[in-house]
Amino acid sequence: MIEPLILRKDAAQAAALFARTTGGETVYRPLSEEEFYQTFIRSTDTVTKINVCEKEGDTVLGFASGCINAGKAVGYITMIVVDRAHRRDGLGTRLLAALETALHKAAPIQSYEITFFNPVNLTWIVPGTPGHDHPNAPGIDVASDGYLFFKNNGYLDTVYQNSFYQPLAGFAIKPKIQARIDGLREHDLAVGYYDKERHFGMEELFDDLGSELWKTEILGNIAREDGGDPVIIAHHNGKAVGFTGPIHVQESGRGYFAGIGIHSDYRAYGLGSVLFSVLCRSLKEIGASYMTLFTGETNPARYIYQSAGFKIVKTWADMEKKIK
Ligand SMILES: CC(C)(COP(=O)(O)OP(=O)(O)OC[C@H]1O[C@@H](n2cnc3c(N)ncnc32)[C@H](O)[C@@H]1OP(=O)(O)O)[C@@H](O)C(=O)NCCC(=O)NCCS
């Protein structure tokens, strides 16, 4: 019988079930019981988590986890796992249906989605690397059984996301990019670290780029009392016309990446590739051992990453089922 997954002892078993899929069947980083509880079960002020499980006696055979983000008419599907010995017997389908019903009951949602907008982020490990991880799985791995499972349960692909990876030990700016950097002077353009004494126009840049997320993060960073982490900009006689950074190394050795953006009036100079390569070099210099990032299948930013030597290491599908 399917029931809510709320008991701590069931959470421990569900965490173990989840851990058994990692490192092969799925690429997620395993979670301790406490991390599992915090990630899948504990709601916050804005995110309501909903879980269901199937038990045989006291043994958890499978679970499904989702959430609702206040103000969004979407039920996010975060995770579903069925014990290997009980697969292909309809249990996954029943768990998913129970989760969908519970999500629908909890809020007036219009669709169920598997997407990077899900506020619950799952860390995953790039296969074949020494634990190099990325803090968010932006959809369902198209190479996993789960992908076909969702397709066969009425979910449609909406967009694809590609994850890019590069170890930084051997990174060097390519001659073609260096030539481009050298040629910027002709246009009174230059690339370097943002300096509030010499540069201006950051707000206007973020208004042009239209991302509140970037604006909040980057302007918040440069307003910090300690000056914040370095931000790399492209500028035209001092006016900021592009950004990337802020640069810092995460505990895992990953070079942090918030984003990259070029003002719409300055997109003809190849500044995106320049900024990105300078970012990689700066991250390497401050001790980052690798970088990961993802972008949409059709986003031209992919050429920037590929021209800097990054490889696609995973493709994810975002999926949706509309509620009729
Ligand atoms: C995905 C998962 C939960 C499916 O559980 P399940 O109980 O086997 O699913 P069901 O029996 O309800 O399958 C329903 C349908 O999905 C499709 N499906 C499920 N697994 C499939 C597979 N390995 N290959 C192809 N189709 C598959 C089939 O159409 C199936 O119907 P059928 O058996 O009549 O052909 C299970 O494989 C699992 O735990 N995988 C590891 C964790 C994971 O990757 N989760 C997804 C991340 S969110």
Automatic annotation (TrEMBL):
CDD domains found in the cross-reference section? NAT_SF
Q: Which UniProt keywords apply?
A: Acyltransferase, Transferase
InterPro entries associated with the record: Acyl_CoA_acyltransferase, GNAT_dom
The lineage's top-level taxon is Bacteria
Q: Which PROSITE patterns match?
A: GNAT
The chain positions of domain N-acetyltransferase read: 1-198, 189-324
Tell me one GO molecular function of this protein.
acyltransferase activity, transferring groups other than amino-acyl groups
Question: Would you tell me the protein name for this molecule?
Answer: GNAT family N-acetyltransferase
Per the UniProt record, the source organism is Merdimmobilis hominis
Taxonomic lineage is: Bacteria, Bacillati, Bacillota, Clostridia, Eubacteriales
